[in-house]
Amino acid sequence: MKNKTAAKKSPGLTNIKGLLKILGPGLITGASDDDPSGIATYSQAGAKFGLATLWTALITFPLMASIQEMCARIGIVTSKGLTTNIRNNYPRWTLYLMILFTFPAVILNIGADIAGMGAVANLIFPSIPSYLFAIAFTGILMVLIIYLPYKKISAVLKYLCIFLLLYLIVPFLAEQDWKTIAKNTFIPTIKFNKDFIGILVAILGTTISPYLFFGRQPWKQKI
Fold first, then answer.
1. Averaged pLDDT, 109-115
2. Which of 35, 84, 130, 137 to pair with 112, CA 20 to 30 A apart?
3. Cα(212)–Cα(72) distance, rounded to whole angstroms?
4. Rounded Cα–Cα distance for residues 60 and 34 (Å)
5. 6 falls in which pLDDT band (50, 70, 90)?
6. Angle, helix 92-124 to helix 82-89, in steps of 10 degrees
7. Are 33 and 212 in contact (CB under 8 A)?
8. CA distances (Å), 45 to each of 18, 38, 208, in order?
9. Three-class SS of residue 148?
10. Quick check: 125 pLDDT over 80?
11. Residue 221 scores a pLDDT above 50
């Protein structure tokens, strides 16, 4: 009887374990869009303009989800990354032009992420300058990326994604004016000044980051 019971349970348990194993890369890529530079941008937008930019979520989220979905499907169908597909299906100048435009943006985004991490660490340890934290984080990341296979890194990072659930909890820990939130979500507020237009560009840029195009690389693993 025990063997029969175990046999009945094992397929479901096997599927769950297999799902958890392959969950890493996609989950991490999706969560990576909530990067330190994005958090810093949204924090600045909230600190300076309150809820006035909340309506941008109705625009940025569908764009971000569509781009990630398209890139993921390209990787699944072709088993190749976006750069390889562009090289194989389009003229070479198209690939070089894409690299010319995306490479600086990706480098600057990575720099902003590391600087954001350094700034947060400085808030915890004010006596240590933020640039020292940034240098330390850069060194740690380089060592991990060079010497550890991605499977091992993703096995750890996917569990850290649990902390993103705090976004669903924190808003309910403070008193909120839900009427104002609804108003700013569905009725756009636009101020034609340098600061407001600048923060709109920053929100759009950090939400639909260039590295999202390449993060959906093919990942094959049997369940």
1. 86
2. 84
3. 10
4. 13
5. very low
6. 170
7. yes
8. 40, 11, 16
9. coil
10. yes
11. no
Q: Is 199 helix (H, G, I), strand (E, B) or coil?
A: helix
Q: In angstroms, what CA-CA distances link 2 with 5, 14, 17, 205?
A: 5, 18, 21, 57
Between CA 26 and CA 216 the distance in angstroms is: 7
Radius of gyration in angstroms for the set of CA atoms belonging to the chain, rounded to a whole number: 21
pLDDT value at position 21? 66
CA distance 113 to 39: 9
Question: What amino acid occupies position 97?
Answer: L
Place of tokens 């004010």: 126
Output the six-digit token pair for 48: 């300076």
What region does 159 belong to: left with phi over 0, alpha with psi -120 to 50, or beta? alpha
What's the CA gap between 123 and 4, in Å, rounded? 57
Q: Which letter does DSSP use for residue 210 in this model?
A: T
Which distant-in-sequence residues (6+ apart) come within 8 Å of 7 by Cβ?
Answer: none
Task: Considering only the C-alpha atoms of the chain, give the largest distance between any 2 of them, rounded to a whole number of Å.
Answer: 74
Among 9-23, 65-79, 140-154, 187-201, the minimum mean pLDDT is found in: 9-23
With 90 as the cut, is the pLDDT of residue 129 above it? yes
For residues 41 and 49, is the Cβ–Cβ distance under 8 A?
no
What's at 138, amino acid-wise?
A: T
Which amino acid appears at position 67 of this protein? I
Q: How far is CA 211 from CA 103, 110, 131, 143, in A?
A: 9, 9, 24, 21
- Token pair recorded at residue 65: 């989800």
Check if the beta carbon of residue 223 is closer than 8 Å to that of residue 22. Answer: yes
